[in-house]
Specification:
Blueprint: H1 5-12, H2 23-28, H3 33-40, E1 55-66, E2 69-77, E3 87-93, E4 99-106, E5 118-126, E6 129-139, E7 147-148, E8 153-163, E9 172-173, E10 188-199, E11 202-211, E12 215-223, E13 230-237, E14 256-263, E15 266-273, E16 276-285, E17 290-298, E18 305-311, E19 317-323, H4 329-335, E20 337-338, E21 340-341, E22 345-349, E23 355-359, E24 371-372, H5 379-388, E25 395-402, E26 409-415, E27 422-428, E28 435-438, E29 441-444, E30 453-460, E31 463-468, E32 472-477, E33 488-493, E34 499-506
Bound molecules: beta-D-fructofuranose (FRU).
Beta-D-fructofuranose binds near residues 119 and 192.
């Protein structure tokens, strides 16, 4: 599925606002109880994913573990469930699973470099203080604009804010940007989403960009103090001409939200463009600061965009992504909420130099008692047991391992009652041992001949996050009709003797009111 975010994004700017929050409530993120009640009983609203109390969210911004707490910030529109007027909203957690809303951390400053929006960025710690680097946008004449689409002309500059608040609720901005313009001599198509990191005596920073007619690019900067930055070079860019890539024929392509980090014995670059997120892994020459990609892939084949990483308390690399809506704007505006955060995903480097993506074990605390298939030699008995497995109220987890021998099979997830609609179908065919089909989309896997196929799924309201052997991920949105949540069941087509194990857990909600408070 392809979402053209830029068209989508700018078609929304300036549209009439449908505000579900009162002015005073905006500041505190507390909802009117009638609105909260409606959101809390919406069967499509997730129960164990992080999302704002109401309204629109997109990219994760500046996730950071600080003073024993996980802080998550994200792109947020306080005016309703549609993109626009970007703020940074804030939530805190002790375990990356249970969250508390803390309200808006960053808001546009009238007359400031971020007067028309606080776009995406990063949080780092310098001398014990947390610092945000983010993109401020403001309307300017077209000649100075870095975003121009005919209807809008916005200047993107890189801004800095600091916090001395142990809870990170209050922020002080530098009045002027720390990078006021893109590098001279490069015809950029965009200039946003700064992502700094510390390496030796220097801070380095990537910025998402693109070169007119050529395609997406990542700019690399360096600094001694996070305040004065020097452009070094282009760290990575689309190879060849954009016109040669049928699915990316946008002459103004931008590689959004790039991030560069060490993982195992490699370096990884992630970036997002035209509704999909990608990774490259390879080596960094630390003196020249040049990156040589050796492998590449897609971070998620479904609805997942603009991810951002952090180190958890054990220094494990965690990836968070924005899971967008795939339903119509009118529908999510009317629902009063749009977008959610993915579950925390653990990134590791495989022995083959390719990325591995799993889900943080912290999620296991939400599991209710396991329902496990006791695989017997009797196909009918196995089918009977599978018929009895239930995911209640659209909230559960499934793990399935199956042999990749001579037999094809299909695993489907479907409504358990009269409404037996299929939510998702996974197909494996030994004629194509290097791929798995998810609702017809082929996900590549590279497995030893003897390795089982390992499927891991989380189902939550209207979202399914699926992982195949930690090598491929696919996030799907499914919108049930009606006003109540029902149960789901599994269906296996093919020989049940292929199944090595199959377990289902119902999942406990992370709050009593679907995080509306
Ligand atoms: C990615 C993105 C970023 C930008 C932000 C604005 O989804 O377009 O490039 O900073 O969203 O909300």
């Amino acid at each position: 599925m392809k979402i053209d975010r830029r068209d989508f994004l700018f078609s929304l700017v300036g549209t009439a606002t449908l505000s579900v929050l009162s002015t005073s409530a905006r500041a505190s993120s507390l909802l009117d109880s009638a609105v909260a009640g409606r959101l809390a009983s919406d069967p499509r609203r997730p129960q164990f994913h992080l999302l704002p109390a109401a309204n629109w969210m997109n990219d994760p911004n500046g996730p950071i573990y600080f003073r024993g707490k996980y802080h998550m910030f994200y792109q947020y529109n306080p005016n309703g469930a549609f993109w626009g007027d970007m703020h940074w909203d804030h939530a805190v957690s002790a375990d990356m699973v249970h969250w508390k809303h803390l309200g808006v951390a960053l808001a546009p400053t009238p007359g400031g470099p971020d007067a028309d929006g606080c776009f995406s960025g990063t949080a780092v710690v310098q001398d014990g203080q947390v610092i945000f680097l983010y993109t401020g946008v403001r309307s300017v004449a077209e000649a100075q604009a870095t975003i121009k689409d005919g209807a809008h002309s916005l200047l993107e500059t890189q801004c800095l804010a600091t916090s001395n608040d142990p809870e990170l609720k209050t922020w002080t901005k530098l009045p002027a940007p720390v990078i006021a313009a893109p590098p001279l001599g490069i015809a950029v198509t965009g200039f946003r989403d700064p992502s700094p990191w510390r390496q030796g005596d220097w801070w380095y920073m990537t910025i998402g960009s693109g070169i007119e007619g050529k395609g997406g690019a990542v700019l690399l900067y360096k600094s001694k103090n996070l305040r004065h930055w020097e452009f070094m070079h282009i760290l990575a860019q689309r190879e060849g001409s954009i016109a040669a890539v049928p699915e990316h024929q946008d002459a103004r392509e931008v590689w959004e939200c790039p991030e560069f980090f060490a993982l195992g014995d490699k370096h990884v670059l992630i970036y997002s463009t035209s509704g999909k997120s990608y990774w490259m892994a390879g080596t960094l020459e630390p003196h020249a600061m040049s990156f040589h990609a050796e492998t590449a892939g897609v971070l998620d084949y479904g609805s997942f965009y603009a991810p951002k990483t952090q180190l958890d308390k054990a220094e494990i690399r965690i990836l968070w992504g924005w899971i967008p809506e795939t339903r119509k704007i009118e529908e999510y505006k009317a629902a009063g909420w749009a977008g959610l955060m993915s579950l925390p995903r653990v990134l590791t480097m495989g022995g083959d130099g390719r990325l591995r993506i799993g889900v943080a074990p912290e999620m296991n605390q939400l599991r209710k008692p396991e329902q496990a298939l006791d695989v017997t030699a009797d196909d009918e008995k196995n089918q009977h047991q599978i018929d009895g497995l239930r995911i209640e109220q659209y909230s559960g987890e499934i793990m399935c391992a199956a042999r990749r021998d001579a037999h094809p099979y299909e695993l489907s997830l479907r409504g358990a009652g009269v409404d037996a609609e299929i939510w998702l179908t996974v197909k494996y065919d030994p004629l194509h041992p290097g791929q798995v089909s998810i609702d017809g989309t082929q996900l590549p896997v590279s497995l030893d001949e003897k390795a089982d196929l390992e499927l891991h799924l989380y189902i939550d309201g209207s979202v399914i996050e699926l992982f195949v052997n930690k090598q491929a991920a696919c996030t799907k949105r499914v919108y049930c009709p009606g006003n109540s949540a029902h149960d789901l069941r599994l269906q296996w087509a093919g020989k049940t003797s292929s199944i090595v194990n199959l377990s289902v857990w119902n999942m406990a909600p992370i709050s009593a009111d679907r995080l509306t408070n």
